[in-house]
Amino acid sequence: MKDKAQLPPVIAIDGPSGSGKGTVATLLAAKLGWHLLDSGALYRLVGLAVLKMKLEISDEEQLAALSRDFDIHFEPRRSGVTRISLNGEDVSDQIRVEEVGIMASRIAAIGPLRKALRARQRAFRKLPGLVADGRDMGTIIFPDAVLKIFLTASVEERAQRRYKQLKTKGESVNLPRLFREIEERDNRDRNRPIAPLVPAEDAVFLDSTGLSIERVLAEILILVAERDITS
């Protein structure tokens, strides 16, 4: 086993759905030239498979086995959009629909699945470094991350962001329903018995309410520079 001092550095960005962590992580990885892990996408990929294959989520071992066979690749782009491929197919748009997101939140509490995905997530840790976004990156997956960010925003703002995002894609959406779904997902994520959504004790708390993605990225880059992480 490698000594921790020899492991590639990790910047962990955790937070609730709609906080902007995915876009910020993508921009940061592209800016630094580091690898990217969108851990939420892993659960969305399993959720997509569950829906397509009409699997029972009560069959926990089947879900765990399914997750081990995925060939997954993340390609961060300077636009802030990540191309996600599954077994060579671009599924970036398929995994972002609301139905898949809700399923991902449901299966994220399944212990055998989380255990199966833990090793896969840690395998993304390669030189020159990794930017990892999710809900337990700084607490469970990479507790030794050189920088931990907990990014959040008000429920109202997160619902508005998701509403605009879906409308841009031409989808029919209801803002009050989105608000309720985000509140329900927050509740599930915070109160699940396994790896609940909580800030790491040494995380830097950033509230993105009212801030542009560019401003949030700039704040994180200041922290990166202050800690001399990339030298």
Task: Name a few traits of the molecule.
8 strands; alpha/beta; Rossmann fold; 231 residues
What this model shows, in words?
- The longest helix is centred in the last third of the chain and has 17 residues, at 175-191.
- Strand 3 and strand 4 form a beta hairpin.
- The mean pLDDT is 90.
- The chain is α/β, with parallel strands linked by helices and 231 residues long.
- The protein starts with 9 loop residues before the first strand and ends in a 5-residue tail after the last helix.
- It has a 5-stranded parallel sheet. A 3-stranded antiparallel sheet has the order 3-4-5.
- Helix 1 (21-32) packs across helix 9 (213-226).
- It has 9 helices and 8 strands.
- It has a single domain, classed as P-loop containing nucleotide triphosphate hydrolases (Rossmann fold).
Q: What letter string, H or E per element, gives the SSE order?
A: EHEHHEEEHHEHEHHEH
In terms of structural class, how would the helical and strand content be classed? Answer: alpha/beta
- Assigned CATH architecture: 3-Layer(aba) Sandwich
Shape: globular
Q: Report the biggest beta sheet as strand number plus sense, adding barrel if it closes.
A: 5 strands, parallel
Radius of gyration: 17 Å
For CATH, the homologous superfamily is named as: P-loop containing nucleotide triphosphate hydrolases
Number of strands: 8
> What's the tally of helices?
9
What number is the mean pLDDT? 90
CATH topology tier name: Rossmann fold
Number of domains: 1
Distance between the termini: 24 Å
